[in-house]
Amino acid sequence: MSEKLTALVIDDEKQIRKLLRIILEDQDYRVLEAENGRQGLADLAQRKPDVVLLDLGLPEIDGLTVLKHLREWSHVPVLVLSVRDGPADKVAALDAGADDYVTKPFAAVELTARLRAVQRRSQSVDDEPVFHMAHLTIDFTSRTVAVKGEEVKLTATEYALLKVLAQHAGKVVTHKHLLREVWGPNAEEQSQYLRVYMNHLRKKIESPGKAEKLLRTESGIGYRLMLPMKQE
Amino acid sequence: MATGAVTAVSFLVAPMTGHVGIALLYLFLVVLAGLTLARWTVLFVASASALIWNFLFIPPRFTIYIEKVEDVMLFAMFFVVAIALGHTTNKLRGSQLAQQQRELRTAALYELVRQAGLAHDIDAGLGAALALVEATFGVKAALLLRLKDHTLSRETHAASSFKIEPRAIELAEHAFAGKSPTGRFTQTLPDADTMHLPLKGRSAVMGVLVILPAAEKRFGAPEKELIETFAVLIGTILERDHLLAALKHAEIIEASERLQRALLQSVSHELKTPLAAVQAGVETLTGAVSADGKEESAVLEIQTALWRLDRVINNLLNMSRIESGVVQPMLDWCDVGELIENSIDLAGAAIHEHRISIDSDPTLPMVKLDQALVEQCLCNLLLNAAAWSESQSSITVGARLQANQLLLTVQDEGKGMPPAELPRIFDTFYRGQAAKPGGTGLGLAIVDGFVRAHGGKVRAANRQPQGAEFEIAIPVETLPATVTEKLA
Questions:
Q1: Of A14, A23, A81, A83, which to mutate for an interface test with B (greatest number of B Cβ within 10 Å)?
Q2: Is the ipTM of this complex over 0.90?
Q3: How far from B385 is each of B4, B137, B459, CA to CA, in Å?
Q4: Mean pLDDT of chain A
Q5: Last residue of some domain: A73, A99, A120?
């Protein structure tokens, strides 16, 4: 990339901000810091960062509220940082427009992988007619899927499901989101459809045994099509 | 007697006024009677006056016989007017009496509401209510209240003015259960000394009012009605007080839960933030240190320690959630195979030195449970099994359905548990006698807590010839195979 990307870190903990700066600068980001939601929103408006890392546990205005304000006028990719307090907070953040989350304490590789994934969105998937990942190939024009070069027959629903996951590859996609995209807005509560089809899909595209999984379940939240982590 | 007096006066004045004037005197008598006497007496006075007047004064006097046509008319008119007048005045008096009674009743009920209903303290209020019952009806009054377990107390309430006898308590219980009065002045055992009135609130009987009238006391229908109204009003006051107390209690519980959640959140934030900082810092160091074996292994050790610290913090937070009762499973459909694989992933490196096998029925239907919580349970059981058995030994995870219960089992090939310790292993902070260093004694307690939150049970047993088996049993709703087939 010719120009440096800018990341805005909104976190009230100075230590975390400092460490995120080290990790992010190492990945060639320009880093902006904001210590509360108000300042974060102001920085966002003035300095137009390429990605936002938002802590949910902010003082005064909490992270979720900041997220809601921000989504009223901005499409900037947002990665939420939260402590592991059960899925409810994360689902709320994702529903409010966060692109993904990282649980504190996090591993630097995990963080940078997530960051790359949330930024993929800006480069629209629809521009690329073929999706390659590990041994999986999806051809969006001919609607065919191949595993290790061999074509796999998917039903229309299985294909639709895989397509949504591939379009958000590397990012978590909530149950609600998948149900809405594949079955329509009235199916948001019909989680059993999702479980049944994910089960079928998994059997068709994942190789059995202990091989690295393609489709990861985020319990109580959604599913994630895993991007291979780059070893740097 | 009044009739006699009027007759005597009439004899005196008759010569002056003639028999027609006398009629007016008799009519006056009838009006007086109407204002004071009962209906039939008034009618009797009216008829008697007419006959006496005819006999004594209408010419020819001292005969029933009436000579002149106008006198016959006069007599007939007198008769009709006397009866009508007596009747009307009597009715007037009746409605006046009823009015007075209503006023008394309203005043009494008003007093009851004012003194008992608005009292700050329910006991003072009940005291006032009993005093009012005693003053209004001229009886002695006592109370039995409903207890917390919704049965009637056998202890006479402190505000009562006599102690309730065992026999009366039985009748009171009868009134309490049947929601209708018993004892004196009622259909049920009217020969008892006391009357027992249920204190009916809007939705429940809050107690029984027992009254002891003097032996010769009579209760008319209006009094009975009034005292029943009193009982209902006291019941309503008690119920209101009870509901207020319940509301206050619920508010306190809610506030404490809110506080607990806030506390957990802040503790969790305070513990995790420095941990995150250390973790991220160590990783940055990994990049900086040369590929020297010594430094790298030091970094690895730090990471293992961090991982352990993270787990302990999570365990403590989870335990604290369980103990404060804020764990509420979010039930959703879940694939059991997926759940098992996730649990194995969650356990991570700690079980990599064991051979893990899965013994689960591939045709298991979808089940409804909180996947994140159950995964945590299964993960804890796996960690426990790994900690108590040799590396390279097998750990088997099983899953099956049995009578609407999902059974998840974890079997290891370790030494098993001393039978004496079995009953205590799910206790918070309990650690086996032979436990290796590390661990807080929370893992199994958390399993127990999360499984209980699902309405299920976890149990532990030793296997033959060796090893331990843990079994989680959770009642679940299953997705019928027909639905799955339809979707396939």
A1: A83
A2: no
A3: 114, 77, 14
A4: 85
A5: A120
